[in-house]
From TrEMBL:
Coiled coil: none annotated. This is Glycosyltransferase involved in cell wall biosynthesis. It holds the Pfam family Glycos_transf_2. Residues 7-116 form the Glycosyltransferase 2-like domain. Transmembrane segments: none annotated. Keywords: Transferase. InterPro entries: Galactosyl_T_C (IPR027791), Glyco_trans_2-like (IPR001173), Glycosyltransf_2 (IPR050834), Nucleotide-diphossugar_trans (IPR029044). Residues 149-193 form the Galactosyltransferase C-terminal domain. One of its GO terms (molecular function) is transferase activity.
Length: 276
């Protein structure tokens, strides 16, 4: 195994619209010591046919029934021969120089994860935004978004923490994984450049995760109860801060003209018992 080899693990589930872009950008990475692993997580027929069409762009193809992104990533990383792992979802892509820049960062023995600034865009919308993960250590990871879900890390670190939690099929599996990676020390290093493109598709995993956000938080908080107890004052501050934000937003909505007009229009229906 080359000490500088990077295994790119791409997970795919019915992503026929974006598969070509993902594979082309993976192959375009300006780092020679790499392999491309595609994990087909139970995709439909049209996606499987496209995978076969692009088989020459894939070094290792793994197919499985639909078990979720955590299981798919774990199967891909198990087969990886690289010292470093770069994971990404099939509908996203990195700029071609991400790996070469990330490896300079991870040379630091204290660095466990390398991420970068991200361009969030939607194919069905014209607007886009730049997201800047904050990086940091375990303390930061417990309460904030320290890295994108697609990032570079060491395979030996993945082995040490037994990979992604395959029970986490609702989302935020990357956040929980990062907590375990940083538990014994180390930090997340951020490349201050937009080198990752996150496609916010309709009915995306991120949107689905937000719908079940509190179920996921319950799971993470209880799984890492020891860590949150050690940092209980900050945990309380963080919870109260989130609550204040929600109440402030709710107050702003209730004072808006649109809300008042809506209440006025719906008032007769409530009086008639049609609406509660």
């Amino acid at each position: 195994m080359s000490s500088n080899k990077v295994s790119i693990v791409i997970t795919c589930y019915n992503d026929h619209k974006y598969l070509t872009t993902a594979l082309d950008n993976a192959n375009a990475q300006n780092w020679d010591e790499k392999e491309i692993i595609l994990v087909d997580d139970g995709s439909n027929t049209i996606t499987k046919k496209l995978i076969e069409k692009h088989i020459s762009k894939i070094d290792i193809l793994i197919t499985q029934e639909n078990l979720g992104v955590s299981a798919a990533r774990n199967r891909g990383i198990e087969k990886a021969s690289g010292t470093y792992i770069l994971v990404w979802d099939c509908d996203d892509y990195f700029e071609r120089d991400f790996i070469s820049k990330a490896l300079k960062k991870i040379d630091n023995k204290k660095t466990e994860i390398v991420t970068c600034y991200s361009r969030w865009f939607a194919s069905h919308l014209k607007n886009e935004k730049i997201f800047k993960p904050r990086g940091g250590d375990l303390y930061d990871a417990l309460f904030h978004n320290v890295a994108m879900g697609s990032a570079l890390f060491k395979k030996k670190s993945w082995e040490k923490v037994n990979g992604y939690d395959e029970n986490m099929i609702l989302g935020f599996e990357d956040w929980e994984f990062y907590i375990r990676l940083l538990k014994d020390g180390g930090h997340v290093s951020v490349i201050p450049e937009v080198l990752f493109n996150y496609r916010n598709t309709p009915d995306s995993r991120n949107d689905k995760a937000n719908l079940r956000k509190y179920d996921i938080l319950d799971y993470i908080y209880l799984k890492h109860a020891d860590l949150y107890k050690e940092n209980f004052p900050q945990f309380v501050k963080n919870c109260l801060s989130e609550q204040r934000k929600k109440e402030k937003y709710k107050h702003q909505i209730s004072k808006s003209s649109e809300y008042k007009i809506g209440r006025f229009i719906l008032k007769p229906f409530r009086l008639l018992g049609i609406l509660e």
